[in-house]
Amino acid sequence: MTRVLFVCTGNVHRSVLAERLLAARLPRGAAVRPLSAGTRAWPGPGMERATRQALERLGGDGSGFASQELTAPHVLGAALVLGLAREHREAAVRLAPSALRRCFTLKEFVRLAGGQAGDGGRPGDGGRPGDGGRRPDGVGDLAGVVAAAAAHRGRVAPVPPEEDDVADPWGRPRAALDECAREIDALVGRLVQVFGIPSSVQVSEALRVRSG
Fold first, then answer.
1. Catalytic annotation on 103?
2. 164 catalytic, yes or no?
């Protein structure tokens, strides 16, 4: 099972939404397991009520969640670590420096691996954006995509720091959490394309057409 780890501060809003929205988009049997943790999380069962409501409005499942603090084994055990802001990416690298090339912000990874840096294709191979090296079982060559994105990172101009962060909705009006959830949902949709995995929506549509 290939682990994709999302990291935010409290493991209450942003990383939770990313974990469960990615899970909702993955087809049954996909060899990717989304996880999440927080750099200053208080471990405990259950999802914060407003987060769960925002998640469920977008089709995610909030059951069985437990927040956890980010540790070095979390980072080392993940094929890809995605911070919801730069501070979270940096925290992961401090815990496990050897994982540097597997640590990005979510926005950064989507931008680099999705061919959004101006070259029109997947980093390193000139392919189509979001190709992801699709295999017959529907699972992309994630290690190859991650390595290509890491190589591409040093060859493109940096963006302003705020462009790589998903704003923290903590302590802000409910509308800010809903906006955050929608932004993360859109990013996760692009992430699935980058992985080269057909989304659960695509799989359901294909089955419907086939049965019809």
1. no
2. no
Does pLDDT of 136 surpass 60?
no
Task: Output the domain CATH number for residue 171.
Answer: 3.40.50.2300
Buried b (16+ CB within 10 A) or exposed e, 161-172: eeebbbebbeee
Backbone conformation region of residue 105, classed left if phi is above 0, alpha if psi is from -120 to 50, else beta? beta
Q: Which amino acid is at 104?
A: F
**61, 119, 141, 178: which one is catalytic?**
119
Q: What is the predicted pLDDT for the residue at 197?
A: 82
C-alpha separations of 125 from 12, 96, 109, 141 in Å = 37, 29, 16, 13
Of 8, 20, 102, 165, the active-site residue reads 8
Task: Specify whether 119 is catalytic.
Answer: yes
Chain centroid offset of residue 88 CA: 13
pLDDT tens across 76-90, in order?
999 999 999 999 999
Q: What is the pLDDT of residue 204?
A: 40
How many domains is the chain partitioned into structurally? 1
pLDDT tens, 138-188?
345 889 999 999 999 988 888 898 899 999 999 999 999 999 999 999 999
Among 14, 25, 89, 190, the one annotated catalytic: 14
The reported pTM is: 0.85
Look up the domain containing 11 and give its range: 2-211
Q: How far is CA 212 from CA 15, 45, 200, 204, in A?
A: 38, 43, 18, 12
